[in-house]
């Protein structure tokens, strides 16, 4: 009989982690807005302090699986939904809302001369530089997208910023440039050898390709981004009306 490594690992986990895992199993059979046991009930059931019980529930709240209402208790959160195509939510925030752990793997970043198209779309002077960043975006350690982003060269602070465990857009806000409006074009493609390797999929796997141009709070061009999502790991939801013409 093979040893249950997962059970063995859980046995040595902190107490709050064991409670958290037990609650995750229960959540799978519960409906949105169902109440979770109170901290006092969990404390009694698992023979732990209320602080330990609170830590377990807090993990579920942080992962977007539950929500708290002051004076009422903690409840099951609604299941994740696909991203609205007309609403750009930061990848990190989107994954947390879905109960997944976001992170990034930095492939490279550099300061280089802008291409003719980048010069035009970012409204740069001739011969200007840009900051180019390539990352793989992950959810629970699983590659979801390859993201190539280009910024005006005066944002060279991005060359040394923490971009693997912190939102790039949050970093831009700290630099005084707030991503505010923009537009996107959505197409489809197949993964080439390099992209397939980064995303850990087979060559030719279907990808959803989103190309975005984002303006800052002053209407100035801030970012050009091309994101290639693994089609079976990511979805966009579209609302529309029927044109009777």
First and last CA, distance: 67 Å
At the fold tier of CATH, the topology name of the largest domain is Chorismate lyase
Work out the radius of gyration: 22 Å
Strand tally is 10
Shape: elongated
Low-confidence stretches: 1-12
Question: What integer is the average pLDDT?
Answer: 86
Number of helices, where a helix is a run of at least 4 consecutive DSSP H or I residues: 8
Write down the CATH class of the largest domain. Answer: Alpha Beta
> In CATH terms, what is the architecture of the largest domain?
3-Layer(aba) Sandwich
Helix content: 25-40%
Tell me the strand percentage band: 25-35%
The sequence of SSEs as H and E is HHHHEEEHEHEEHEHEEE
Class of secondary structure makeup:
alpha+beta
Number of domains: 2
Largest sheet: 6 strands, antiparallel
Enumerate the strands of the largest sheet in spatial order, edge to edge or round the barrel.
4-5-6-9-8-7
CATH superfamily of the largest domain: Chorismate lyase-like
Structural description of this entry:
This protein is α+β, with helices and mostly antiparallel strands. The protein is 28% helix and 31% strand. It has eight helices and ten strands. The strands form three sheets. It has a six-stranded antiparallel sheet with strand order 4-5-6-9-8-7. The longest helix is centred in the first third of the chain and has 13 residues, at 15-27. The protein is elongated and about 70 Å long.
